[in-house]
Amino acid sequence: LILTALPVSFQQVFYEHIVSVLDSEALHGLHATINAVALILTALPVSFQQVFYEHIVSVLDSEALHGDPSVCFGNLESECFLLTENQLLTNLALGHAYLQHCSTISLAALPEFVRDQLAPKLVTEAQLIFVLRLVVPILQRFYDAKERSKQIQDLAVDVYKMTVKVNERVGVLKYEDSICDLLYHMKYMYVGDFVKNEAEQAIQRLSPSMRDKLKYISHTQVSSTTTTSSEHSPQKNSFLSTSSLF
């Protein structure tokens, strides 16, 4: 009732809280502040929680994620100690806090959100790394709820699709080793061979260097010589064809 009586929208109230979290004066108690904002948000009706997803979309559109992908790396505690105000890391921590504290009903919206709102926007390596760092750690929550294995599989397939999309657009990825590490972690910790076919189809569309690094996921040996053109051309009936990616 208080929220509905406010003279401004709830979205504006939430963004003001985000600004306060990102304020350098709050950095000394940043973890507590982030958790407080996340807990307040999760205590609200589900319709109000939609503002979290809107905020993540705005972060994905930010100028910082259209530059060097190195901005997505770093340690939040170190950034706080140095008072560098890395807003991407703070928003990442806020995302993890919300997704760890929210109800299973709210969490169930994540796969659809990734597929419909985040994946179509990815054009840079920095955006891809930000989304992977947001999504992959949260797979543990889905994994703990055994009945939600289908949602893990859906997210895993979308992760492969997003990686293919950005790799095809950008070419050689600057941090492909880190991205491959996340993909291996996702497979061996949460997914296993449940999406083996989808993973193999996706990996065959990646750059040669990434295919070589992911050969233990796809179980396909990459020849050091030039592959045939048929191996490079997308399969017309594949669900990973360009027309059906997003």
What would you say this structure looks like, in words?
The protein is built from 16 helices and no strands. It has helices at residues 2-5, 10-22, 30-42, 46-60, 76-82, 87-101, 104-107, 110-118, 125-135, 139-144, 149-170, 176-191, 196-203, 208-213, 215-218, 229-232. It has two domains: 1-102, no CATH class; 109-219. It is globular, with a radius of gyration of 19 Å. The longest helix has 22 residues, at 149-170. Mean pLDDT is 79; it is low at 222-246. With 246 residues, it is mostly helical.
Summarize the topology.
Layout: H1 2-5, H2 10-22, H3 30-42, H4 46-60, H5 76-82, H6 87-101, H7 104-107, H8 110-118, H9 125-135, H10 139-144, H11 149-170, H12 176-191, H13 196-203, H14 208-213, H15 215-218, H16 229-232
Helix pairs in contact: 2-3, 2-4, 3-6, 8-11, 9-11, 11-12, 11-13
Largest sheet: none
Distance between the termini: 39 Å
Helix-strand pattern: HHHHHHHHHHHHHHHH
Number of domains: 2
Instruction: Tell how many strands the DSSP assignment holds.
Output: 0
